[in-house]
Write a structure and sequence with these properties.
- This is NADP-dependent 3-hydroxy acid dehydrogenase YdfG.
- Belongs to the short-chain dehydrogenases/reductases (SDR) family.
- The protein is an alpha/beta fold.
- The chain has 7 helices and 7 strands, in the order βαβαβαβαβαβααβ.
- The chain has a 7-stranded parallel β-sheet, sandwiched between helices.
- 41% of the residues are buried.
- The model has no long low-confidence stretch (mean pLDDT 91).
Length: 259
């Protein structure tokens, strides 16, 4: 096989695959013909998603994964490779945000978000990246956020982690040039997902009011997770020789009546 060709079989790993963007991405990649390994802390949820994929004719496995644990990441990686073979695609999607005034958020809580959103992505990179470099092919996709461009109030830790993530990936892209491995950033705008669902209603309302105050919520539409899954599928199925390095996905504003 030419080093510029993609193999027929491209096993993929998706972290944070128990719901939202991760679950929809697993389904989309499986529908595109990629075997998928789902990882998340909620094993029951990822097993349900994997079963649904298999029922639709796809190939899917599910294993527990805590991206804050070196041991958990190593164990997950070993099981994914044992089940599916060398991993060709990694979608680093696991993430969390807990709102609060930056001055009030406990440092432990702040660090916990950075650990999942940034250091967790690096642990996943370390688990799968070296093999891709050795094989001279592969896709590493990192889910960022529009807060990396415009931080939102009362989401300081989340913004810091996503700024850090994009800094890491931009450096990685330069380091990987000429290796055959593509590192990409997918940057969602406001999206319906489990992130934020656990916020108390009054807190969520207050945070949204602050977004409006600072011009960060120009209209009420949110993306569906499927939109991000479609974007990720486009990135990783691009032909060799094409690198979609960064892609922004935003909800379209409601159509206005003519004045």
């Amino acid at each position: 096989m030419s080093k510029y060709a993609q193999p027929d079989r491209r096993p993929a790993v998706i972290t944070g695959a128990s719901s939202g963007i991760g679950a929809e991405t697993a389904k989309a990649l499986a529908a595109a013909g990629l075997p998928v390994a789902l990882g998340a802390r909620r094993l029951d949820r990822i097993e349900e998603v994997a079963a649904a994929i298999r029922a639709d004719g796809g190939e899917a496995v599910a294993h527990p994964l805590d991206v804050t644990s070196d041991d958990s990441v190593a164990e997950f990686a070993a099981k994914a490779v044992a089940d599916l073979g060398d991993i060709e695609v990694v979608v680093s999607n696991a993430g969390v945000t807990h709102p609060g005034a930056t001055v009030d958020v406990a440092t432990e809580t702040f660090a916990g978000q950075v650990d999942i959103n940034l250091l967790g992505a690096h642990r996943i990179l370390r688990a799968f990246g070296p093999g891709m470099i050795e094989r001279q092919r592969g896709d590493l996709v990192f889910l960022s956020s529009d807060v990396a461009l415009k931080p939102r109030p009362f989401m300081g830790a989340y913004a810091a982690s996503k700024w850090g993530l994009e800094g890491m990936v931009n450096a990685l892209q330069m380091e990987l040039e000429g290796t055959g491995v593509r590192a990409s950033i997918v940057r969602p705008g406001p999206t319906h997902s489990d992130i934020g669902n656990e916020w108390p209603a009054e807190l969520g309302g207050f945070v949204l009011e602050q977004w409006v105050r600072w011009g960060l919520a120009r209209h009420p539409h949110f993306l569906k997770a499927q939109a991000l899954a479609d974007a990720i599928t486009t990135v990783v199925t691009a032909k060799r020789g094409v690198h979609i390095s960064t892609i922004d996905v935003n909800p379209e504003a409601p159509v206005q009546e003519p004045r």
